[in-house]
Amino acid sequence: MEEGIKPFIYSGLILLVVAVAGFYFLFLSPSGTFLTTSPDGAKKICNVLENNGGGTNIVFFAERATAERYVNSLFEFEPLSGNRDSFNFYYIDLLVPKCEFYEGVALFCYSRDLIRVASVCPSDYIVAIKEEAPKIRSSSYRNVMSLNSAYTEKVFAHEFGHAFANLAEEYIPGAIPRGAKNCVPHEKEFEGEIDGRFGGCSRDDHDRSIESGIMKTLDSRNFGKLNEFIISRGIVKNGDGITGNAVEEFEDDCSFREYFLIDVMPDGESLEVISKTKEIGCAGGNGFGESEYRLFDEEGNVIGSEKFSSNLIFTDSPPVSENGEIGFGDITGKTYVSTKPFSLRIPIVEDAGRLEIDSGEQSVTVEDLSQADYASNVGFVSVSPVDKLLGNDVQKFSFGESGILGDYSINIRGEVIPLNEFINSKNFGVRNQPVEQQRA
Predict the structure, then answer these.
(1) Among 20, 119, 142, 282, which lies 20 to 30 A Cα-Cα from 212?
(2) 47-239+327-336, what's its fold?
């Protein structure tokens, strides 16, 4: 090739990249926080695993094959096996959540960032799956289940029982969430058909309704008659869910929806709202329990309400020996009372004014909810058109606690280059590499 032509070719390539990147930024929303690409050839973060037209949406942070395995395991249990069409499943495989070990013993992926990123999909419940040492327990907190894939997939059914049906632990020791129906005092009757009456259910002075169900041991393959009844009451069909998130309504696309995100800190005997923002995405649910929020219009009329999960963190694993061998028998675990901040997704309702949040023991009021500002760093991203043109591999990134969701990057001649100025590289890492390497 003639030397005089090369500069023109290089300049042309640079202009092409700049032009495409400029096109990329033209899709910013009025708030300056929404980022996407042309739908032609673009790959969204949110992927559909199963769209059954149901009323309850569950999103996995996992590869597709892994998510499928856990979904299939869940539907081995009644009453779920006969109600698959009541659920829709999605997965996010490009972004990896930064999790912690709660009290050093349990995988804990719940965070504000996780909630926000999950909202790119319809998501009443969120499942994060990571492989850790067998001694590390899985956990359930509010609507987030953090599953250690080192042991049986049946742990999903157990944590699902906590998040979806407010079921208490049926092994000892545990703490019983307010309103739980599966553990009752010795002198009280169960509210429904039972398999039998057996002593010990989270506490010595409470009974359970099945000798060895999945809420007691991961060796089991059933919830028991009473728990099946409790779960069946929460199953909704044909899109009539608590959040009204019928799949047909938005065709799996949350990129043109908005919701309020309320961050709340337990503060002794009260709750403190530490932030309120307007976010882009699907509102989804907040787990199920006896806590509740109520939304009022300017005249004081209730225009929306939802019950949500308690502040208990359930941590569970099968018995594990000192040398890491997984055994059989009752679950090993502990229930903790969280003092961490939590996030509530509230659907944006016309004429919304005051919001009341009541945990049963603590409460707080949010005035002028409609005045919440857009978050400054939320965005939806798709595979960069620069990548498509240059044929480069898209990297898979994890997100941390900074509140920055981040953009994809391009890998040009081995160098990962961010397209978006609001990326902070310290908060990202390539999937399947140790966290230490990610943050180095």
Answers:
(1) 142
(2) Collagenase (Catalytic Domain) (3.40.390)
